[in-house]
Design brief:
- The chain is mainly α.
- It has one domain (3-128).
- Helix content is 82%, strand content 0%.
- Helix 3 runs antiparallel to helix 4.
- The longest helix has 23 residues, at 117-139.
- The protein is elongated.
């Protein structure tokens, strides 16, 4: 296993556990969305391992993740799913770039898709932490 992939998987697990423990329903669902998307992306990447042209499997996974984040954002009172949805929108837009430029460099395509995974995790953790601080401040006597 590639060291970067291993580090990402460890970060994914730690961030998801943190959000699940501290983020209530939204944190649990968000963590589940990202873990599911990672597992499905790994499977989809096997279909087009050379990254030449659009990867329809990854496009489907990323679009599904975007839809799940949209539903989470609409049903949650937290703000971080909106930010995560914004990053995921850019990831989906990357797939459209490969449609308009079929000779897109495969390493660039892979790098652009992979890049947004880290900020999404960061947004989930920071958003969960800010929500937790806000809630603790609301319960303390004035």
């Amino acid at each position: 296993m590639d060291i970067l992939l291993l580090l990402y998987n460890v970060a994914l697990l730690l961030c998801s556990v943190y959000a699940s423990i501290n983020g209530g329903r939204t944190g649990k669902i968000g963590g589940a969305i990202f873990i599911s998307a990672t597992v499905l992306s790994s499977a989809a990447a096997l279909i087009n391992p050379n990254w030449a042209g659009i990867s329809w499997g990854l496009f489907a996974v990323d679009s599904g993740c975007l839809l799940a984040l949209l539903i989470l954002a609409l049903t949650s009172d937290r703000y971080w799913p909106i930010w995560a949805m914004g990053f995921q929108t850019v990831a989906v837009a990357t797939h459209f770039a490969t449609l308009s430029a079929p000779d897109f460099v495969p390493k660039s395509y892979q790098a652009l898709l992979s890049f947004w995974a880290i900020p999404i995790l960061w947004v989930m953790v920071v958003g969960t932490r800010k929500d937790r601080r806000y809630e603790q401040g609301q319960h303390q006597p004035g």
